[in-house]
Specification:
The complex is a heterodimer of chains A (84) and B (798). Chain A has 84 residues and is of the alpha+beta class. Chain A has 1 helix and 3 strands, in the order E-E-E-H. In chain A, strand 2 and strand 3 form a beta hairpin. Chain A starts with a strand and ends in an 18-residue tail after the last helix. With 798 residues, chain B is mainly alpha-helical. The chains are: A alpha+beta (84), B mainly alpha (798).
């Protein structure tokens, strides 16, 4: 008997490669969108800080905008800098 | 006789004269000899009545005569009814009436003379102020009825039944000629051979008899009730016959027409003694007939309504075709008082014919939809619908697959699905019972057309009736409201959608998008947001896959088969069934890993987790005598790929290699056995079959297995709704464990209260009812994670 595979269509789920499951600000899973978004993934991406913490981009932007003086990571209180 | 007036008249002359003129006084009907001299004149009577009351002399004698001679003679024909057949009965009655008539007419000359004498002058005499003839009729009636034998009705029935049969037959034959042709030997009317049909004679005799009865004033009293019951029976049998036909034509008009022509004509003939024209009747009789007609008409309606109500279940099932019958029923209900009967009967019919385990859920749903449509036509206020379909709702709530059936009905593309049509037609968004009262605005707009609820409306339902009226307009809302919650339906739809999206071979989503848009109009955007993301996942997968295929690294090391993927957002899909993780053949897994690499390169910081048991594989199989091209699931593909390396496998070996339980494997391997590629050589050992066996018995077995496989293949890839729910409830488990560690043991309602206080707060909190919690806890008890004794739950001692 000879079996030839013509095509293999698999099913997969995607996830962010992050050191946590949930966004520290909105407490939603990273793989879901932030509360303001409807579509996860490209439309609601994650960003990493230099302190290695990551958040939904919309969440951290909202946080940073609300800060009066210096911009700190909400998790470790270090100065927030986007990881390049 | 001039000397009569003289005071010197001797008593013997007077006596002779009285005896001559009123022979009844000496118990005779006629004087022995005719003597004109003795004939009384008006003058004489006037003189006489001045001095004494003739009536009180004569009438008691007549009464006695009636009592002793005439009445017993009349009734003598009415005994031994059990031995008398219909024909005999007819004759007996005729003779009796004839004799009564002749006997009574013999008394007439005397009565006339009494009449001449004028009424009694003594105002205390009971015969003053009476009309002698009327009084005579009264005597006849009174005497006859006072001696009425027990079973007299039988004879009278015989008489009228015979006559009515003949009459109906004449009526029928005058309208439908062909009925009477040589096909029947016996005449339908008189049950005689056609050649000596007695119909005409019977009719003549009948009318003659009726005329006599009318003259005697006996018709109403003697035969009225029998006539009524006879006609009632007639109406019943006629209505029954009419109702046996299909429901697609209205029967009211023909029935009224029948009543008017056949029954009323007959009645008029009876009352008029032969002529069929009502013109010749006097006012009083016409009135009587009219009253009679009204009663009969009501009876006709009532009979018809009852008959239709008894058939109502069938009418409902056949609904769009039985529209005419429903219309009839609606008109009838307005005229009769049978709503309660209707509700009871239909509910009973539903219970015995629909709501039992033998009926499949789709059938119940079809019937329910038909009932909604039919009852809506029957009663536009929706009151009947609400009351009658309550048991259906209760029953559907108990069925596990109701939601699934409704949802698949909604998505059914074939033209037979009522629900899909209804969905496509669109409509207002679903209003739930819990949404609060109807807006006062709406009530005000329509206040001029306000109608009170029907009298039989349940007052406790009063609050919901305004909304009830609105809900009636929409079948889908009614079905969704069976559960009082949209969540179940949305979840079920999500599961169904997931299966459909995963099972399709290309990235086609047009149809699903269309359905989703239709559903969104009903359930609202928010509820279906997850589904939207799911469809978008499929759509995006196509694009991502396109990009991955262009990846240089991926292409350079490409295997000899193409790979693609559906990439899902796990958070938005219903949970997958994942009791085991399938181990794919190494070279396939390598290829998939390469795909992941390409994806990671494309989308930074993201990776893929394969669901190895899901997907679709297209492969060619070539054996010595066959060539197959198949689209199968990964697990089937993995199985057959292993057989390529080695011809014979034991299930346990395979299980170890593929990381799949043997029970599952045995089911899956059945597919290849049905394809006649594998044979079970010994228990749990399968080997490859290069050539198809020509043994017939095996072929038969094969087809059976195929059927079995087909059943199995529709199994859902998603966890069932109840599993999902259980997963949700797990949230509570940590709370419960915490509670019980601190407080040792607690009753159910305490636990429920605590959970309500601590666990179910904030948005997105899981709601959990008391019964559901009990089920959950009992489940934990069964798993030995909890102890339950004397109403208290506690944790087992470690």
């Amino acid at each position: 008997m000879k079996v030839t595979i013509n095509s293999w269509r698999g099913v997969a789920t995607w996830r962010w490669v992050a050191n946590d499951d949930n966004c520290g600000i909105c407490r939603m899973p990273f793989d879901a969108s932030c509360p303001d978004c409807k579509i996860p993934g490209d439309d609601c991406p994650l960003v990493w800080g230099q302190c290695s913490h990551c958040f939904h981009i919309h969440c951290i932007m909202k946080w940073l905008n609300s800060q009066q003086t210096s911009l700190l990571c909400p998790m470790c209180r270090q100065e927030w800098k986007f990881k390049e | 006789m001039d000397n009569l007036s003289n005071s010197s008249t001797n008593s013997s002359t007077l006596e002779k004269w009285l005896e001559y003129n009123f022979p009844i006084l000496i118990n005779k009907i006629k004087p022995d000899v005719q003597n004109d001299d003795m004939e009384a004149t008006e003058e004489n009577f006037k003189m006489l009545s001045l001095s004494f009351c003739l009536q009180s002399l004569v009438i008691p004698k007549i009464e006695k005569y009636m009592r002793i001679i005439i009445a017993p003679k009349f009734w003598s024909k009415f005994v031994n009814v059990s031995e008398i057949d219909e024909k005999q009965g007819f004759q007996n009655f005729t003779t009796s009436v004839n004799e009564l008539y002749t006997d009574s007419s013999k008394l007439l000359p005397m009565l006339k003379k009494l009449e001449l004498a004028g009424s009694c002058k003594d105002e205390y005499c009971m015969y003053s102020q009476v009309n002698i003839l009327d009084y005579f009729k009264l005597i006849i009636r009174g005497t006859l009825l006072s001696q009425i034998p027990l079973y007299h009705t039988t004879i009278i029935e015989h008489f009228y039944k015979t006559a009515f049969n003949v009459f109906c037959n004449i009526e029928a034959s005058s309208t439908t000629e062909d009925l009477h042709n040589n096909s029947t030997i016996l005449c339908e009317g008189c049950k005689q051979e056609q050649s000596n049909c007695q119909c005409q004679i019977i009719v003549d005799v009948f009318h003659e008899t009726n005329k006599k009865l009318i003259q005697l004033g006996l018709l109403e009293r003697l035969v009225g009730s029998i006539l009524t019951s006879l006609i009632h029976i007639r109406i019943e049998s006629h209505v029954h016959r009419v109702c046996n036909r299909t429901f697609d034509s209205s029967q009211l008009e023909p029935l009224e027409c029948w009543l008017e022509t056949v029954v009323m004509n007959w009645l008029i003939r009876i009352y008029s003694g032969g002529s069929s024209r009502s013109m010749s009747l006097d006012y009083k009789v016409r009135n009587a007939i009219n009253t009679f007609k009204q009663k009969l008409s009501y009876f006709l309606y009532e009979t018809y309504t009852r008959e239709r109500i008894d058939q109502l279940f069938n009418i409902v099932i056949e609904y769009p075709d039985s529209r005419a019958a429903v219309d009839d029923l609606r008109i009838c209900l307005e005229r009769t008082d049978l709503r309660k009967y209707l509700i009871r009967t239909l509910q009973e019919a539903l219970k015995t014919r629909l709501l039992h385990p033998g009926v499949s859920t789709p059938d119940i749903l079809t019937a329910y939809i038909a009932a909604i449509k039919a009852l809506r036509q029957l009663d536009p206020t929706g009151m009947l619908l609400e009351t009658i379909t309550e048991p259906i709702k209760v029953y559907l709530r108990r069925r596990e697959d109701t939601v699934r059936c409704v949802v698949s009905g909604l998505l059914d593309e074939s033209s037979t699905s009522d629900l899909a049509d209804e969905l496509a037609r669109g409509g207002e968004s679903i209003q739930l019972d819990v949404d609060g009262g109807a807006s006062p605005q709406e009530d005000k707009e329509d206040w001029e057309n306000w109608q009170p609820d029907p009298v039989d409306a349940d007052p406790t339902e009063f609050m919901s009736t305004t909304r009830g009226r609105r809900r009636v307009s929409d079948i889908i809302s009614m079905l969704v409201n069976v559960y009082g919650s949209q969540d179940l339906f949305v979840n079920e739809y999500r599961t169904l959608l997931a299966d459909r999206l995963l099972s399709q071979l290309n990235y086609q989503t047009d149809r699903e998008i269309r359905h989703l848009e239709l559903l969104k109009r009903r359930f609202g955007e928010h509820q279906l947001h997850h589904c939207e993301v799911m469809i978008k996942d499929i759509y995006d997968s196509k694009r991502i896959d396109g990009n991955v295929q262009l990846d240089k690294k991926y292409n350079s090391e490409k295997a000899n088969f193409s790979t693609s993927a559906l990439i899902l957002s796990a958070q938005f899909w219903p949970p997958f069934k994942e009791e085991w993780k399938l181990e794919l053949p190494v070279y396939v897994q390598e290829q998939l890993d390469k795909y992941v690499k390409a994806f990671e390169a494309l989308k930074g910081n993201r990776t893929l987790c394969w669901k190895p048991h899901l997907g679709n594989v297209n492969l060619d199989i070539e054996t010595r005598d066959r060539k197959l091209n198949l689209n199968i699931s990964p697990i089937h593909a993995t199985l057959i790929l292993h057989f390529q390396d080695k011809n014979e496998w034991n299930l346990d070996e395979l299980s170890e290699l593929m990381h799949v339980p043997t029970t599952v494997l045995r089911r899956k391997i059945g597919y290849w056995v049905s394809q006649a590629l594998l044979v079970e050589t010994s228990r749990d050992t399968f080997s490859l079959q290069e050539e198809i066996a020509t043994n017939n018995s095996r072929n038969i077995q094969t087809t059976i297995v195929t059927d079995m496989i087909d059943d199995e293949e529709v199994e859902s890839a998603m966890a069932s709704a109840s599993d999902q729910r259980e997963e949700e409830l797990q949230v509570f488990w940590s709370y419960i464990v915490g509670m019980l560690t601190n407080l040792d043991s607690m009753p159910l309602d305490r636990i429920h209260q605590m959970l309500k206080m601590f666990a179910s707060q904030g948005s997105g909190a899981v709601e959990c009812g008391l019964p559901e919690l009990r089920l959950f806890l009992d489940n934990k008890v069964r798993q030995h994670q909890l102890l339950f004794s004397s109403g208290l739950y506690k944790l087992p001692k470690p």
